[in-house]
Amino acid sequence: MDHLAHWLRTSSYTVVFTGAGMSTESGLPDFRSQSGLWRGKDPMQLASTRAMMENREAFVEFYQMRIQGLISCKPHAGHECLADWERRGLIHGIITQNVDGFHQEAGNLAVAELHGSLAKIRCLACGTEYANTRYLEEQGTICACGGFLRPGVVLFGESLPQSQVDQAISWTEEADLFIVLGSSLTVSPANWFPQHAKERGAKLVIVNQEPTPLDAWADLVIQNEQIGDVLQRVGQSVGE
């Protein structure tokens, strides 16, 4: 913790990368664990462009379930720490694989959402956006124009949003400290960002419950710790 606090204090440009482990501490399920969202399910039948067009009832039910789960949870202490660090100029951007919108809810402004956001839904026909709670209403999947409303997440079969990728690349290439929080670093192309930061000379810190493929590259690895606890303890040291 002392090393991370020192690096955070002395870094000129710090970027944070968050994955599912950041969200699970708020009570949201991950995707690939024993109790994850994909256990016993085929993602291509529920969360793909094909499912949206050809298996729409199951598609809608799956995302209604996810939205119900999302609105029952809230940001945890780790999210609050990151928002405070951004306000204080200690971090300069958050690249996230998560779609819960908790970073923004906690107060972060500089967030690149690689996989989109479940906080909003939008019309396939006219592009109008609505709050995600619209999906839970009767006829809540139909826009005022008559078009179908879809979640704002990246589905299987879609490309990552280029504007978000470009922002993430820009931050990564500026970073002299790159902190990974709660990602297995097994999903491409998202895991390219910490690799690229390290190759460009940044210190790499990985905080995750389990080992990752990039642990051998990292300058510091913290395992078997709650992210919220780690960030609070580092924050106390930085604030001294």
TrEMBL record:
Which keywords, in A-to-Z order, does the entry hold?
Metal-binding, NAD, Transferase, Zinc
Q: Where does Zn(2+) bind?
A: 123, 126, 143, 145
List the GO molecular function terms.
Answer: histone deacetylase activity, NAD-dependent; metal ion binding; NAD+ binding
Q: From which residue to which does any coiled coil extend?
A: none
Record-given protein name: protein acetyllysine N-acetyltransferase
- Is Disulfide bond given among the entry's keywords? no
Presence of keyword NAD: yes
Q: Which SUPFAM superfamilies match?
A: DHS-like NAD/FAD-binding domain
UniProt EC number: 2.3.1.286
